[in-house]
Write a structure and sequence with these properties.
The chain has 111 residues and is α+β, with helices and mostly antiparallel strands. The protein contains four helices and five strands; from the N terminus they run E-H-E-H-E-H-E-E-H. Its cofactor is Mg(2+).
């Protein structure tokens, strides 16, 4: 049986304690025998498929660091993802939920 793979994402902007939460999730997942992937730069990372496996070594020493080791943003929404601007400068949006599902499948993320 393969290891269960789960993902963690920080979205909505920065706040104190995110690195502590990430560290706790990685430690707990490791203890349970799961692989954990960090989604980089919030929901944008789900759309673009930018994830990396987080190990105990990755989270060692992150508690005193500010911000989040994964990066975060409060701008991106996979259901209304900005893809550029039209000729008049108005933003253009697209539904990127299919890309999110494909990226989760590519990394074999279950949860």
């Amino acid at each position: 049986m393969s290891k269960k793979k789960i993902a963690v994402l920080t979205g909505g902007g920065d706040c104190p304690g995110l690195n502590a939460v990430i560290r706790a999730v990685v430690k707990t997942a490791n203890y349970q025998g799961y692989s954990i992937y960090g989604v980089e730069n919030g929901f944008k990372g789900l759309v673009e498929g930018t994830m990396s496996e987080l190990t105990l070594g990755c989270v060692s020493g992150i508690l005193p660091r500010g911000g989040t080791i994964l990066g975060t943003t409060n701008r991106d929404n996979p259901f209304r993802f900005m893809i550029g601007c039209d000729k008049s400068g108005e933003p253009l949006f697209a539904d990127k939920r299919q890309e999110v599902l494909e990226n989760l499948k590519k990394y074999e993320i279950e949860t």
